[in-house]
């Protein structure tokens, strides 16, 4: 019978991983306490020890049949899995699972049992495998990486503090000659001392007296100082990373502000520019649409652009009858532009070279003196399409009503695309000819 | 009767917000103290409690009628306001405003009153809303963000220290067996202990003795270490951000310095380049005008450029009679250039392709051997405009007198713009023809 | 006899350097202890002192004959070596090697011997030369720079702590009036106090009482605080540098995410883009191949490109018979492109302008409705080569099966290269002509 | 009589500034000590006080006649100087110089004298002006900014510690009931306590007992924690800035390394690329010559380029007879290129389009099979100049001997420049014609 390799991302496997994770944490807490309090080696403890061995052996069997990822490719080949497991995780897992007790109890003597029991501390090696499990869970990506990093930091510090406390308890002589402490108090006082030292607070109500204690304290102090430095460094790094986008943006704004001040730009123009940058940050963290799309490979870029603009493009009369490919080319060549409230997008009488598509916001079509609003165009509208056909003067002034995200398409780009679609180009030229004729007629009439 | 939604930025609303803010801080200070000192539940306290409930209920009513911003758009629609308030702030506000006392006092018993009173601690939930108020005030943007950030940090630390002190007081047994402390001293000693611990100083003159105290101290130490790390991280981040522009600039200068040293550039040239970079930093934080303008949307860019250069452009004789649109195009295509003192902007006899506009600083028109200064042109002057018409040799040498911010316009750009203005192009060509004829005549005469 | 300069990178020289390094550390530990414990000046000590002098004098001789690097150039000229050594390292080496004892013992008196002995402390000057040795070892570059930096930091702190401990021992009056300490305990307590102070823990069980002690403690506290700040700053810096690539990438991804959210991109497209960025990071730390190659000087760029693509290029039928130089030009102009699983690389009926080479991954040649897979092309395959000859519609749809690293070559680039190879261009044109004829015939048949 | 404004950078003025600086520091140290030790108000002290007043009044007079800089421009106009001084520095200077004693001693009474004396503390306001003096000294730019920043930090901390110590002394009750301290010890113990607290060590051997002391300690602890955080933040920032160029470079190298590994580039090519990047860093901190020159304004760029290349250009035979302007254009258009040892710069038989100038390093002219070295060209040599005239195949293979900094000039750029110099172009064309004829003749002979 051939059992297939276990997929590492199935629900069952992850549940097992979490079970092992919790068990590992539990024994990390319990085993040192048992050893420090020197509990008698009665049956309960031996059974407890035996169970853990069994579960860890089961874990070895499961792990050695679990497929693994290499550069995002799942390796399911049995032999590769074995080799990979043997090389990486097996020694640690074996150490943690090794039933010292069973082997040593074949030679029963108080000393042997003692050794068997002490060897339990080796089970803590399993802690080294925690990273793997957490890595797998993290990959599900629903969690903030800074949050995970801080949580892990706290977790490891607490584990370290617990282990240090137990070690301190075992060497701490006469922990209060006047009022002997009971068991819990002693652990509590030890833990209290550890935390006080690791956080560099150092009350000094508990301090070493024997040489052994002194050496131990020196080591813990050095570790503690390093650890505390590491925590502060991590926090500083997390804070810096949270702020990285914001602080770069602020730096940019500061430069602009300095420039405006240096050039004595009038106050209202300064405010308008300030508001524009605020809008950019509030609405999109200051990103630049073009550069983001530029980064994507072409098919993804096309998908995004098509999603954003296909609807609006198909409404444009002059694009009626163009084939799919042509529309795609047009969409890929749209340029995002932003207008701030009150900006003149198009001025009557000026010769235009671009047409515009409104993606967000609205614009007013106004009279030349801006006193009458003829119409308001909202998102999904477009204007200026005649500019693509012929270089005629704009026939209306258009002003942005609020912040507008538009896309523009200029005549040069349009003409370049047309070159590749000779059939459609003919159609466009006819349309342009017709439009020119109409315009000339109109002008004659006006005369 | 239908009352309209309250605008969140009116003077009255902000005043109310600040009032609630101060009240919240006040009760945060007072309530824990009352509880720790176990003041008798007399009428005064009950009235105090009742008043706060009433004010917080009023706040709920006001808040639930206040319009709010969503992506810089003010939402005034009643139903949306309600939904938004219910979802976000209502639970907290309710908890803070809930008149536990009134409800529980319907069943009068010492225990019930006690519970009613203890429930007062829930009012501190209101603290969570402080951020909102400060956010609103901050938006008025008159304040330095680093300063606000530090102030908030200090504020929250003091609040935390106060709450920790009160908690410590309530569990601190026998705080000085020899000399019993009076009420103020006790709070003071508590606060002293809290600060000593949070700052990781840990004198050790006050240290835990009972198990409860030990557990409390462990928790506070861990919080304190994290908090202290957070403060240091924040300070480091603020310092780094203050310096970000400067340090990037220094890095750039260091690169230049290394280059100059590597290439054995002579000392005076090295100094000149160093001075140039100093000038760039002192006058404009090293910004690059072109790249700043590039970032702005076209209408804003046009406004800024027009403001900076319209005056000077209109003075140029060859632009007389050009229409508004042409001038705009010219202005948008000016290139900022900087000259350092002593630089030759134009050398007599060389063929020129640019004209220059002086924005700041002044230049000398000098003889070929630079011994005679014919004239000095200040800001608002221009020169070299013939280069736009024909490729004739420069007829004078011009040297920068001090640091000059100029704008240049080269013939290629000028010709490109002309293409779009065929009528004006004809005029320019005539002018060029005339000028050429004149020059040739002059040359003949010289011969 | 003329001995040649010693090469600094030979095995023997490095071994000697390491020996001197270890000896320096040893005397740094031993000499202060001898002085603090005021060991009697017996013969053993004098011999010890004499040996060290001899070894250090030998070191001076060796160093003054060792060639050195200046801007990656080995200077072997004897005189230059001498001058360089005299100017830089000689004074320190002399101080460390000076046999004070021998000179002073010519005037034997207890005082003189005492002075000779105290002067031993000057040997510690040799510590200053440690950096040199470590620098040389580091240059072998097999070690992680952050790791070296941390190790050195710890090393210098331990050295400093040892020296401070010895100094404290020598001024520490009555270090425990009740239970007089033995020699080791005294050093241990001193070291314990030093570490407790430097890590800012400050238990306070050992604190200064005399004025001298107080002054000493003040100095150590100031040094300690600076040192601790330096450690934290270093750790923070190391953490920040480890993460620099990752955090920049995350920032970029965050921008993209914000953009996608702002534009309401549908969920599956969002996931696809997210996966693409994950793939980019996992497979290549988000690097951009073009920009990396752009940085290299042309010959190196050519070598890398040739290595990557020569095999595949030579397989293309239309490149048969092209000369080496032509192939090189083609390879240098390939553009890397990435396709995500499911992307349509080429769509049947669209007019193509690029050919593709598959470097990693595989693509499916599918029917127009994508229901039938005609073939699968793996890495080392190419397709679309006809596009380089004539602008015919694609004759098959090709979809990426998984993440594909491809290279593309477009017709414009190809034509530009052909210009330089007129002979081969003729051949290509013939091939194109032939192909066109074939296609037309086929089309006739189909009709 | 009209005295001219004092120049702020003269030797005398700076000396006076330093004198005032030292005096300010001296009184900052002395005045608090006098007050804390409550020295009797005898004549000596009154004279001391009077002298300082006089000197500070003199300083006011001098400062109010010293020209100042505004945006790198020296303002010498008397009225502007006065206004600027009155607005900025005068209030502080007045406070520091005000002879309280003289005014108050007009109404002699013990109380008045006491007040007059206490008012001395106001002199410390002068400390605020220290920044100005240091700023001026710093501007002389000979000092490392990080070093100045650290020194100032230490200076301010010591001043703060001194002031805190004095304040603590004045409120510290019963500083050692058992062994009363003498005057110096008391200050020493105070200073010791201050440093212990500010560095967050907190031995706890001195701790507050009265309420006043407790409040004082709380304040100092909060200040100390902030200050310590500020120091650490500064150190972290300084370390980060030292490393900024290096860490960016390392990040870049890491990207390249990842790329090379991903693409399985062979080991020796990988090493070659690694060495190239090392060379780039060692020789020029990884800078890119083109981008550095691009940053400079054109006249500076020209000066640097001329300095670097004029000598070599004038040696090229085909440039003989070109005018100054032409040479300048050529030099401005040279492209820096780097060759690594063993690179083939030019391969015999390939058609060349560039000529090369060697700036540093040397190249070998070798036979086609690279077995024979015909010649070695060092810095200041050039080769391949025929490529500028006609597209003939290279007539030798040239290989880089070591790292070579070269400049290249390609035919396209050369032709573009020629367009602007029609007379010289004619000459060049003749030369090309002649050369072609010669080549053809040679080829005939070879046949």
Which runs of chain A of at least 5 residues are low in confidence (pLDDT < 50)?
none
In the CATH hierarchy, what is the superfamily of the largest domain in chain A? Jelly Rolls
Strand content of chain A: 5-15%
CATH topology of the largest domain in chain A: Jelly Rolls
Textual characterization of the structure:
The structure is a homotetramer of 447-residue chains. Chain A has 447 residues and is α+β, with helices and mostly antiparallel strands. The first copy, chain A, has three domains: 1-139, no CATH class; 244-287, Helix Hairpins, CATH 1.10.287; 296-445, Jelly Rolls, CATH 2.60.120. Chain A has 17 helices and ten strands. Chain A has helices at residues 11-37, 43-63, 78-88, 90-97, 100-104, 110-118, 130-138, 145-171, 183-198, 211-242, 244-262, 267-284, 289-295, 298-315, 324-332, 411-419, 422-446; strands spanning 68-70, 73-75, 335-339, 344-346, 354-360, 363-366, 373-377, 382-383, 397-400, 404-410. In chain A, the strands form three sheets. Chain A has a four-stranded antiparallel beta sheet with strand order 3-10-5-8. A four-stranded antiparallel beta sheet of chain A has the order 4-9-6-7, with no helix packed on it. In chain A, strand 6 (363-366) and strand 7 form a beta hairpin. Chain A is elongated and about 120 Å long. The termini of chain A are far apart. The mean pLDDT of chain A is 80. Chains in contact: A-B, A-C, A-D, B-C, B-D, C-D. Chains A and B meet through helix 9, helix 10, helix 11, helix 12 and strand 3 of A and helix 10, helix 12 and helix 13 of B.
């Amino acid at each position: 019978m051939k059992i297939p390799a276990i997929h590492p991302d199935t629900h069952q496997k992850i549940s097992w991983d979490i079970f092992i994770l919790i068990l590992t944490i539990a024994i990390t807490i319990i085993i040192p306490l048992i050893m420090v309090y020197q509990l008698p080696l009665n049956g309960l403890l031996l059974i407890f020890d035996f169970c853990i061995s069994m579960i860890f052996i089961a874990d070895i069997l499961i792990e050695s049949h679990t497929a693994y990822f290499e550069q995002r490719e799942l390796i399911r080949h049995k032999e590769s899995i074995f080799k990979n497991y043997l090389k990486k995780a097996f020694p640690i897992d074996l150490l943690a699972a090794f039933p010292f007790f069973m082997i040593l109890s074949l030679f029963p003597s108080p000393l042997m049992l003692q050794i068997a029991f002490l060897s339990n501390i080796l089970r803590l090696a399993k802690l080294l495998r925690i990273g793997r499990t957490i890595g797998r869970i993290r990959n599900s990506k629903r969690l903030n990486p800074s949050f995970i990093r801080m949580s892990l930091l706290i977790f490891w510090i607490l584990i370290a503090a617990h282990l240090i406390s137990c070690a301190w308890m075992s060497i701490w002589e006469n922990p209060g000659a006047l009022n002997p402490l009971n068991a819990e108090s002693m652990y509590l006082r030890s833990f209290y001392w550890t935390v006080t030292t690791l956080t560099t607070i150092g009350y000094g109500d508990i301090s070493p007296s024997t040489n052994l204690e002194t050496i131990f304290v020196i080591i813990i102090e050095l570790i503690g100082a390093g650890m505390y430095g590491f925590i502060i460094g991590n926090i500083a790094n997390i804070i810096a990373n949270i702020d990285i986008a914001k602080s770069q943006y602020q730096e940019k704004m500061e430069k602009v502000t300095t420039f405006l001040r240096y050039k004595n730009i009038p106050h209202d123009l300064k405010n308008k520019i300030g508001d524009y940058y605020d809008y950019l940050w509030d609405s999109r963290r200051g990103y630049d649409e073009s550069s983001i799309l530029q980064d994507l490979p072409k098919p993804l870029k096309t998908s995004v652009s098509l999603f954003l603009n296909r609807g609006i493009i198909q409404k444009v009369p002059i694009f009626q009858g163009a084939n799919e490919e042509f529309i795609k080319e047009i969409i890929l060549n749209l340029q995002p532009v932003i207008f701030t409230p009150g900006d003149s997008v198009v001025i009557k009488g000026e010769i235009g070279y671009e047409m515009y598509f409104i993606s967000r916001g609205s614009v007013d079509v106004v009279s030349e003196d801006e006193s009458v609003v003829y119409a308001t165009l909202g998102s999904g509208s477009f204007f200026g399409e005649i500019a693509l056909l012929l270089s005629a003067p704009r026939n209306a002034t258009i002003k942005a009503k609020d912040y507008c995200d538009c896309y523009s398409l200029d005549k040069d780009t349009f003409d370049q695309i047309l070159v590749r679609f000779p059939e459609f180009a003919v159609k466009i030229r006819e349309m342009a000819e017709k439009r020119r004729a109409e315009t000339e007629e109109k002008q004659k009439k006006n005369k």
